[in-house]
Write a structure and sequence with these properties.
Layout: H1 8-24, H2 38-49, H3 56-70, H4 76-97, H5 100-125, H6 136-158
Helix pairs in contact: 1-2, 2-4, 2-6, 3-4, 4-5, 5-6
Subcellular location: Cell inner membrane; Cell membrane
Organism: Neptunomonas concharum
InterPro entries: Cell_shape_determining_MreD (IPR007227), MreD_proteobac (IPR026034)
Length: 162
């Protein structure tokens, strides 16, 4: 068995930092709703790939960091990523067996749940709209999932993160 890379935690944190940066990159107004949920996809991948090392607590910390970075209501991203991580953790053995297109369908559902939680919390605060356009990031995330999965799997294998 190959030795584990000593910087495995740094690799996981590094991918999350890239996700934080991608989630904050400026986009034209017409493309704002088309932004994929990068951090949610990265959390889904790491929970699926390393459920014994990256779980609900890691998702919660990632969500709190995202709340601080985005300046959103504290705990909103933490709650939604924790729920997404829990569902992924429950299903991780099954998800690993799915081909990429079925995984992408599940990512659509998981990121959709993430977006629904956002929408629900924002409806309490009074900053939400009446249309379903808030689900567009779930669709874009599902379409990008195969490439995100292959990239993160390549990083995990290159650096032998177990």
């Amino acid at each position: 068995m190959a030795d584990q890379h000593p910087g495995g935690v740094l690799i996981v944190v590094g991918t999350l930092i890239v996700g934080f940066v991608l989630s904050q990159m400026p986009l034209p107004d017409m493309l704002v709703w088309w932004r994929p949920e990068w951090v949610a996809m990265i959390v889904i991948y790491w929970v699926m790939a390393l459920p014994h090392r990256f779980g609900i607590g890691s998702a919660w910390v990632s969500g709190l960091a995202l709340d601080v970075i985005k300046g959103s209501l504290l705990g909103m991203n933490a709650l939604s990523l924790t729920i997404v991580a829990f569902i992924t953790l429950v299903l991780h053995k099954r998800l690993r067996m799915y081909p990429l297109w079925q995984q992408a369908m599940m990512v659509f559902v998981l990121v959709g749940i993430n977006q629904l939680i956002f929408h629900w919390i924002q409806s309490f605060v009074g900053t939400t709209g009446d249309t379903l356009v808030f689900l567009l990031p779930a669709l874009v995330s599902a379409l990008l999932w195969p490439w995100v999965f292959v990239l993160l799997r390549g990083i995990r294998r290159t650096f032998r993160v177990n």
